[in-house]
Design brief:
- 2 copies of one chain form a homodimer.
- By secondary structure, chain A is of the alpha/beta class.
- Chain A has helices at residues 14-26, 48-60, 66-82, 88-101, 108-133, 143-146, 162-168, 198-209, 243-251, 263-268, 323-333, 359-371, 400-410, 436-448; strands at 2-6, 30-35, 138-140, 176-180, 183-185, 191-193, 214-219, 224-225, 237-238, 240-242, 272-276, 285-288, 300-313, 338-340, 347-353, 377-390, 417-420, 426-432.
- In chain A, strands 3-4-2-1-7-11-12-10 form an 8-stranded mixed beta sheet, with helices on both faces. In chain A, strands 14-15-13-16-18-17 form a 6-stranded antiparallel beta sheet.
- In chain A, helix 3 runs antiparallel to helix 4 (88-101) and helix 4 (88-101) runs antiparallel to helix 5 (108-133).
- In chain A, 52% of the residues are buried.
- The interface between A and B is large, with 63 and 62 residues.
- Strand 17 (417-420) of chain A pairs antiparallel with strand 17 of chain B.
- Chains A, B: This is Aspartokinase.
Chain lengths: 450, 450
């Protein structure tokens, strides 16, 4: 039994919905279908979710919402027309949006969340209508009906444990079950949406709840690539990677989807298959808790920029019990979260995302580290890119570091810092942002071309 | 003006003292001479300091001290005889030891410290007698007279700031000034000894206090070597290294002297020259605050074993603000000090010295990390050796990491972890203890043989 999730671009038009229908129909084990709101049909297009946010925001400040409301309805109407679905479903959607506009504005975050959720919700109804019209028995199931309960945090809802038990009962339902992604209900019956990657999260929760054999995540690329295709030409497709590898790659810039969305599936031990709605015969990428060992140590290389380093030097630092802890405490109290802390004997480097820093915060930090901790030298460096070389099999392959550092050195790229914990699932190199693309290309060539 | 310090093996016999005299005599700028107690004359010999500790301990529990007392006096007597110094100095030493034995036992740590200090103190008197007899004007100066005040911590005394000002006045003294190493006086007039490397500490304090141009530290090796001569055959001698490099090398097993002993000289910006009493024309090794850039990126390679790693894995760890700080806090409360913390996205490795761990402590730690911090996996690994590749010029030499990791990989040595902060003064590799010597040899050959 499979859970299938379709993203916004897979559901942006009637043409796309026809592909989705074929995909669901051709495999009878595809029982649970989680859907997004209609996405972009072209680069210049707008996502329905963005239109809904705009509409809700305007309504909250009592601006005229009529033009944007018409735009939203036109998107559904255009799909219904392409699929020859008749006007009933559009009347229903129109009715729903009118009710939302007239809703309770005293709690703006819930007002907004109800709007956001309607994108997925109305699309799920439309898709159920279409599937049934095509002769495939399908039921739209509202998350409240499914018992998909979440915490009371609009825009950042967390699933409640009982949701999994409730969802399991959906297995009994006849035919295809169509569930809108992106939101659940609080115990008091309010809609609360998930964070980024919301429909992916719903799919993963449903996959865990119904104890699916596979969670198929349909998007608009054939696979996850071994390196960013915008930098490296025709990078290799990754056939299989583990959750851990996926996490490490996602961290440094792989944006096929938000990796944390997979957490519920990961917890349930359910494999995820990334597939392309526009090319469903392509194998795609499978993400599994574990995978067989291969002789390819590295599965992918990612990079991300916008990092800074705080270098702290103090003579006899390593004899001072609690020094590192105190540094981290100062950062925490200043609201700064950090990524890595490579160290020498008398020095410690803290790597963190630059967007957290301001000139004022930096000055405060330098003064705190010097005055409170007695650091001799504190310097802050910006424009650092982190290169992540990722692969579970690095553990068993002597020579990966040698290959990687040789590739960088041959290309005259200075390694500012290196970090490799004993998990050996990734190696991190800090380089100057100016060297980022050159470094990615050099590393890709070292590990993926012969 | 120079401060010259001689270690125990340089002062173990009359023959050695003659060398010392020649060294001091031939350079009129060698004004301040800091001396240790007589050390070993051969591998099987005993150090006077060890005999004194034994004597004090026996005396404290009212055992017969006569045999050991005679042994101690015999050591000085043998030197005096070799140098034909007459019996007066030996009578004085005997008198001093008898007084020590009759001393106040109510504070055993001070009783012990007074004994320990007498090794250096009596030797200084003997040496002053000898120098004067040879026609070199020399005065024995007691640390109390010199104003070398320290904290009230027997066996771990710290110099008080005013000591430096007091010592500066010694510049006015005529002739050579001979100061016993290893101890100072508390403000209430009690003797308090330094920790390990005590005479080196006195030398560094005096060098700082008198604002010496150079601190010459005479020992029994020609130089500091680029790698451990017990493992690597005929390793290169290091001509010049910086304090920072010295620190990094000392940390991982270089034992020419205890590097922290140099701190007072380091603070005063005074260069240190390591020289060999038995081969004074050898250039030796100079330790300076900074040095000229060379095209040799690596100055030395050290290794040290007896480390363990605690591997902690938790899904979404890097989103959890305060996780690292909490880990370090748990370690701190358990009284564990750590060395490095390389990390991945969802994992953190803590490297620490194994001798701090017991089966019970490990079990407690694993349970704390799992229960209090919700770690998914916690594993502890023992028998790790840390290899330190050290050199300030690595900063400017692209390719050092590549060279080092290639050397390890070619020799089939798996790198368990890597750590290189942005100081780039050292690179740390964690390897299995079984690979330690092989790794040291491989790294030495990569950087020092052509």
């Amino acid at each position: 039994m499979k859970v299938v999730k379709f993203g916004g671009s897979s559901l942006a038009s009637g043409v796309q919905l026809k592909k989705v229908f074929q995909i669901v129909k051709e495999d009878p084990t595809r029982k649970f279908v989680v859907v997004s709101a209609p996405g972009k049909r072209s680069k210049a297009d707008e996502k329905v979710t963005d239109l809904l946010i705009d509409c809700a925001t305007k309504s909250l400040i009592n601006e005229d919402v009529q033009p944007i409301l018409e735009k939203i309805i036109a998107r559904y109407a255009s799909i219904a027309e392409e699929l020859d679905l008749g006007s009933e479903i559009i009347t229903e959607i129109k009715q729903n949006l009118t009710e939302l506009i007239a809703g309770d504005k005293t709690q703006p975050e819930y007002y907004l969340d109800a709007f956001k959720a309607s994108g997925e919700n109305n699309n799920a109804k439309l898709i159920a209508t279409y599937f049934n019209r095509e002769g495939l028995k399908a039921s739209y199931v509202n998350p409240l009906e499914a018992g998909l309960f979440v915490t009371d945090e609009p825009g950042n809802a967390q699933v409640l444990p009982e949701a999994y038990t409730n969802l399991y009962n959906l297995r009994e339902k006849d035919g295809i079950v169509i569930i809108p992604g992106f939101f659940g209900y609080t115990k008091s019956g309010k809609i609360s949406t998930f964070s980024r990657g919301g429909s992916d999260i719903t799919g993963a929760i449903v996959a865990n709840g119904v104890k699916a054999d596979l969670y198929e995540n349909f998007t608009d690329v054939d696979a996850i690539y071994a390196a960013n295709p915008n930098v490296v030409k025709d990078p290799a497709e990754i056939v299989n990677l583990t959750y851990k590898e996926m996490r490490e790659l996602s961290y440094a810039g792989f944006s096929v989807f938000h990796d944390e969305a997979l957490y519920p599936a990961f917890r349930g031990g359910i494999p995820v298959q990334i597939k392309n709605t526009n090319n469903p015969t392509a194998e795609g990428t499978r993400i599994t808790p574990e995978r067989k060992q291969t002789n390819q140590a590295v599965v992918g290389i990612a990079s991300s920029n916008g990092f800074s380093s705080i270098y702290i030097e103090k003579y006899l630092m390593n004899r001072e019990i609690g020094f590192g802890r105190k540094v981290l405490e100062i950062l925490e109290l200043d609201g700064l979260s950090y990524e890595h802390t490579p160290s020498g004997i008398d020095d410690l480097t803290v790597i963190l995302r630059s967007d957290q820093l301001t000139k004022e915060k930096e000055a405060k930090l330098v003064s705190q580290l010097k005055n409170e901790l007695g650091a001799d030298i504190v310097t802050i460096q910006h424009h650092i890119a982190l290169m992540m070389v990722v692969g579970e099999d690095m553990r068993c392959n002597i020579g990966t570091m040698s290959k990687a550092s040789e590739a960088l050195s041959k290309n005259n790229i200075n390694i500012e810092m290196i970090n490799q914990g004993s998990s050996e699932v990734s190696m991190m190199f800090g380089v100057s942002e100016a060297d980022e693309e050159k470094a990615l290309t050099a590393l890709y060539e070292a590990f993926f071309t012969k």
